[in-house]
Amino acid sequence: MTDASADYIVVGGGTAGCVLAARLSEDPAVRVLLLEAGGAERTPAMTMPAAWPQNLGSAADWADVTTAQADAGPGLMPRGKTLGGSSAVNALAHVRGHRGVYDQWPTGWRFADLLPYFMRSERADGRDPALRGTEGPVPVTAVAHPHPVASAFVEALTAAGYPRTGDLSGRSPEGVAWADLAMADGERVSAADAYLRPALGRPNLMVLTDCLVTRLLVAGGRCTGVDYEYARTTRTARADAEVILAAGAIGSPQLLMLSGIGPAGHLREQDIRPVADVPGVGANLQDHPIILASYAARSPLPASRYNNGEAYAALRSPLADGYPDLHLFPIPGRAPATRGRLRADRGGRRPGQPRHGAASIGVSAAAAAHRPRVPDGPARHRPAGGRPEDRQGGGRERGVRCDRGGRSVAGTGDRHGRWPARLHPPRRGQLLPPGRDLRDRPGGRYRAPGARDRRPAGC
Ligand SMILES: Cc1cc2nc3c(=O)[nH]c(=O)nc-3n(C[C@H](O)[C@H](O)[C@H](O)COP(=O)(O)OP(=O)(O)OC[C@H]3O[C@@H](n4cnc5c(N)ncnc54)[C@H](O)[C@@H]3O)c2cc1C
After folding, report:
1. Which residues pair with 311 in a beta bridge?
2. What is the model's pTM?
3. 2-447: what fold?
4. pLDDT digits over 299-333, tens only?
5. 15 Cα to the center of ligand 1, angstroms
6. Best residue for ligand 1 mutational test, from 11, 36, 90 (most atoms within 8 Å of Cβ)
7. Mean pLDDT over residues 322-345, rounded?
8. Residue nearest to ligand 1 atom 27, measured at CA
9. Domain residue ranges in the chain
10. Which atom of ligand 1 is closest in space to residue 307's alpha carbon?
């Protein structure tokens, strides 16, 4: 039975999905249906920039883990499950990739091709107007009051001889800089905030949350609609024009494969009947593995006014191919009350412990006092479910274990960290769903890109 129909069905109300749904529905003659697996609520942890780590392991995170990696064990792979997707739970850094990377992409996707869209998306005042947009929906905030840890980080890298740059998204996209952040008036601006929420009043746009798309319907070689689950019932939506998959780097290939579109051999192993043998689906997974290194602070640290990071370095290792291959950011954090210990570097956990090693950075306890803002929207826009402690944003406080020089330093006090991330690792990952169901979540679902395929000299 068809429960809904539209010209365009957008699967996934994340970063890309919010933009697509908002842009498509600008034409009042086009009917758009957006289906999002997560909820619509904008929790304090999503709103308050410094509280973003609290999103990890919450109801707004799919909380995936990878298969065991050489040298590193299983890796954490957070991704947003909420309106706004990962843009509602991420670290808010608004930094373009290096133009040298885009210029390796096919024609149509090179830096010069993409620049008008970058500019169209942002509102970055005080930057070079030849390269930065000033009228887009995403407001960009520059860091005006840096955290002392971030200042020390910038000074140390500069003293070590690394170049400074005034704008990583400008003419000099390399070096140590103050990061631009996707926030305004002290609050995060996700893709849902910037694009979708302002469009919710349009009669030709229907947004349904808490709806898990479980299958793409294919007839005569065309995708004609989707099956989705809401409140434990299966429903069907039909698309008169197109179904647009915007379920993210994990969700989109996963849904394709569960619908029979992917490497036929693997699909048969999973007892999935192949509809189209497309070996590239699930392949070529790229990420930037990050090592979380935390250190106990010698004296109390102030709370961050921004994203608990603020500074950002794009640097070249000796292995770099013409553009930076390392990112580095400082993370100051205030330790909340300890509840057990957590190995940040492996993501291992004991029963009852929080899921994410990334949580070791901690956040200001002020998040708990920050009240949720319920989004405005038509009645059909259903509010999120989720656990009360997640909705309050302060109930899942994490323990800390800081690793330093191979020795573990446990602490509940303030701390600071350096998070180095390897960009463009040469090894690519692969997504292979472990079963036929989107809710199958055994630990170890993805073969993730490796962090240590080639060890940079001196590391
Ligand atoms: C913790 C974290 C920190 C990050 N920090 C930064 C940062 O500081 N700066 C930066 O530029 N980038 C950052 N990123 C990366 C960035 O947020 C993502 O690259 C980007 O948001 C991906 O957009 P997307 O539209 O592809 O996917 P997403 O935004 O993840 O959207 C996918 C959406 O699809 C939904 N979905 C998936 N499957 C289904 C299904 N079957 N049915 C219905 N809905 C489904 C999901 O719930 C989700 O809402 C971070 C990411 C994370 C997780």
Report:
1. 178
2. 0.84
3. FAD/NAD(P)-binding domain (3.50.50)
4. 888 889 999 889 999 999 888 988 999 999 888 76
5. 6
6. 90
7. 61
8. 248
9. 2-447
10. 8
